[in-house]
Specification:
Elements (H helix, E strand, L loop, with lengths): L4 H9 L8 H9 L4 E4 L6 H11 L3 E5 L3 H13 L4 E4 L5 H12 L5 E4 L1 H7 L9 E6 L19 H6 L6 E5 L4 H11 L5 E4 L7 E7 L3 H14 L4 E5 L3 H13 L4 E4 L5 H12 L5 E4 L12 E6 L6 H8 L9 E7 L1 H12 L4 H16 L4 H8 L12 H4 L4 E3 L1 H13 L6 H8 L5 H5 L16 H13 L3 E4 L5 E4 L1 H7 L6 E3 L25 H18 L3 H4 L2 H10 L4 H5 L6 H19 L10 H9 L4 H8 L3 H13 L12 H13 L6 H7 L6 H13 L2
Parallel strand pairs: 1-6, 1-7, 2-4, 2-5, 3-4, 5-6, 8-13, 9-11, 9-12, 10-11, 12-13
Antiparallel strand pairs: 14-17, 15-16
Helix pairs in contact: 2-3, 13-14, 17-18, 17-21, 18-20, 22-24, 22-26, 28-29, 29-32, 30-32
């Protein structure tokens, strides 16, 4: 049978459908064309080059900056039965020769190299290989505008020029507009197409807590961790001292925790990281270097003990939570002392002005009073039309007002200054300042000079930051932090759109967030005892094989097993994330555990969604399925909603009228987007059934 991307996706990786953009990127690569892939952490970047690598009759070279990252990805590929290996400074000369021999003999499909190793061998044995594709991971490392510049990446352009007929793919999770153009130029990509996936990680809740005293912060973190018992998490700290203090505090409280920082010897760092990867240690307290080299899918939470240096780094770090798509939590603590200390660091480094500008943007995010997901996505050029409902601001919204007139004054000032000035100059002009620079620029002659003198400097700064956070203006770091008006901003300036701003308030501790909004009905059918037993089996196998537990099966796959309870090979293969290799290697052991639960004398409280799906695919409608299975029709609706969320091919739109969905949407919004069926049922005068409400909510949330 011919290997197609679709068959490889299912047979090797165990997935039924591609994520957005993956199919298009793969098709372009198979056509021999260059691509630039911008996808969030956990968004499925690696699949974009791994599947073409399996289609090509040759070898794919993957450039990666970290040894641990190479090892992690190679192990994941090998777990799926794929011939993959790495070539870096961690392996012995004998192992190097073995890799070279197998690569020349066509026994390796994907070979991972560090950029410095690739450059050193590019004119030797590498020239003898039948290279069909080159993928450059963490491509932001090539750009001076990126947050993690690595000089060795700049030498990759010569390698690209030596393979003019081979498609190149650059991949990164973090690159603003300035960095994107620089990456394409530095790598010498030819007529590449930019693919930008949505950066909206809906399964991550976002919370920020400011100006919390140290002792209270430690107490809050200890309480948070207690809630997350037996779940993996990462706490990021600014200093080595902080990592040890926090780890000691949590260890004294009885938690499985270790610290990780550059002051430790390499062997000790490797031991700590391995223990975390293998689930022997649940919590790591680390400086920001930790986590770049692993793809651990079952990290359930990330805490920042201090303010990160920039939004790119922050986004990448919180992205280490919930890579399997299950609900996960993130929390950021910040104090002004963090900002001052990082500012001092920036003064001593390269690109000082740009670093300080990005640090200021990070502080603006932390102090924001509007939907945090909107702010993050706006920074990466993506604009949400609605608040997310899954951050601390959405959970406890501040008081707002119609800020259209204030916004128009600021936008007019930016436009009249030809989009060349930054925040401070704009405020000085709006407030009618006699500052010499204002007069020197001729800005005192503008119509906007002095139109905002009734608003204080501090409040104006707050409002302008809100405009940036809402995506009306962009801060161009590569142009001296000049303010530019976005397409949305021009609409507001022309009176085509109105906006709301929030009143400046004295910072105070925020109320607790609501539970993660993603926890709707996804887990209601999970047999928790079976899920625990499957996790224990996975851990035992990982110990025997000295292999990361999450690479055997993800938490998401285990939850699928605990819901559908597969007991045959075909049923087991229907679980998301189960391919042929894993089924053959582990299937019988896991099904043996499942059979014990399925044959238990206890009555089955919840029939499996899998049986419902089989009947649905046979053409039965919900009422017929309910009758055949002796179920309530609301239970069938619940199963179909879950199957739709999992991308199983259920046409939920045909099962509930659009008018009903619209009614539910209105009620849902009026109830502050609270995901609970009964309030909506009562709000709609009990005229819409619970099953219709459930399906409507699934459609609303899935398609936003």
């Amino acid at each position: 049978m011919e290997k197609t991307p679709q068959t490889l996706l299912k047979d090797v990786f165990g997935y039924d459908e591609f994520r957005p953009l993956q199919q298009e990127i793969i098709d372009r690569t198979l056509a021999g064309k260059d691509s630039f892939v911008l996808m969030p952490t956990g968004g499925g970047k690696s699949m974009c080059f791994q599947i073409p690598a399996l289609c090509f009759n040759g070898i794919t070279i993957v450039v990666s900056p970290l040894i641990s990252l190479m090892k992690d990805q190679v192990q994941a590929l090998q777990a799926n039965g794929i011939q993959a290996d790495f070539f870096n400074s961690s392996i012995s000369p004998q192992a190097e020769n073995d890799v070279i021999t197998r690569a020349k003999n066509g026994q390796i499909k994907l070979l991972y190299l560090s950029p410095e190793k690739l450059i050193s061998v590019s004119n030797t044995w590498l020239r003898d290989l039948n290279i069909k594709l080159v993928a450059i991971d963490e491509a932001h490392c090539v750009s001076m505008w990126g947050h993690d510049f690595r000089p060795e990446y700049t030498q990759l352009k010569a390698f690209r020029n030596s393979l003019p007929e081979v498609p190149f793919m650059a991949l990164t999770a973090t690159a603003d507009k300035s960095a994107r153009a620089d990456i394409e130029m530095q790598l010498g990509l030819k007529d590449s197409k930019l693919f930008i996936s949505s950066f909206d990680r809906k399964n991550l809740s976002i919370e920020v807590r400011g100006q919390v005293p140290k002792n209270k912060k430690l107490q809050e973190i200890a309480q948070f961790v207690k809630r997350k018992k037996n779940e993996s998490g990462i706490i990021y700290c600014l200093s080595r001292k902080n990592t040890e203090e926090v780890a000691d505090y949590l260890k004294a409280d009885g938690h499985s925790v270790a610290f990780y920082h550059a002051g430790m010897n390499p062997e000790e760092r490797e031991r700590v990281q391995t223990a975390f990867i293998h689930d022997d240690t649940k919590i790591i307290v680390a400086t920001i270097a930790f986590g770049m080299g692993i793809d651990k899918s079952n990290v359930r939470w990330v805490i920042h003990y201090n303010l990160p240096k920039n939004l790119e780094g922050y986004y990448q770090e919180i992205g280490r939570a919930g890579r399997d798509g299950l609900p996960s939590e993130t929390r950021l603590y910040y104090n002004m002392s963090d900002f001052v200390l990082y500012s001092q660091f920036a003064d001593d480094g390269a690109n000082s002005a740009m670093q300080k500008d990005k640090l200021s943007r990070m502080l603006q995010f932390a102090e924001a009073k509007s939907c945090r997901r909107k702010i993050l996505l706006s920074y990466f050029g993506e604009h949400l039309t609605k608040d997310c409902g899954n951050c601390d601001v959405c959970a406890n919204p501040p008081k707002d007002f119609d800020g259209t007139l204030l916004a128009q004054k600021a936008l007019s000032g930016i436009a009249r200054m030809k989009e060349k000035e930054g925040i401070t100059m704009l405020i000085n002009v709006l407030r009618g300042s006699n500052n010499a620079e204002v007069h020197a620029g001729g800005y005192s002659q503008l119509k906007t000079y002095g139109v905002g003198k009734d608003v204080s400097f501090i409040d104006w700064r707050d409002y302008i930051i809100q405009l940036a956070n809402q995506g009306l203006i962009e801060i161009m770091y590569s142009e001296g932090s000049a303010l530019k008006i976005s397409p949305i901003g021009w609409k507001v300036l022309k009176g085509e759109q109105r906006i709301k701003l929030t009143l400046p308030v004295v910072p105070e501790e925020k109320n607790k967030m609501r539970p993660n909004a993603m926890k709707m009905a996804d887990e209601e059918d999970v047999n928790t005892d079976l899920f625990t037993a499957l996790k224990q089996l996975r851990y035992s196998i990982s110990q025997e094989e000295n292999f990361p537990a999450y690479l055997i099966f993800s938490d998401k796959s285990l939850k699928g097993m605990a819901v559908d309870m597969p007991v045959t090979e075909n049923q087991f293969l229907a679980i998301s994330g189960v391919g042929m290799n894993k089924m053959e290697k582990y299937g019988e052991e896991f099904m043996r555990v499942i059979r014990k639960f399925s044959s238990s004398p206890k009555p089955k409280k919840t029939p499996t969604t899998l049986e419902t799906f089989v009947l649905y695919k046979e053409g039965l409608n919900p009422a017929e399925i309910a009758a055949k299975r002796d179920l309530q029709i609301t239970t069938v609706y619940s199963h179909l909603s879950q199957l739709y969320t999992e991308g199983k091919g259920v046409e939920l739109e045909k099962l509930v009228e659009k008018a009903v969905v619209d009614k539910v949407r209105v009620a849902f919004n009026e109830l502050d987007r609270e995901i609970a069926l009964k309030p909506i049922f009562e709000k709609l005068n009990e005229e819409v059934s619970y099953g219709e409400i459930r399906m409507s909510l699934t459609l609303i949330l899935k398609n936003e």
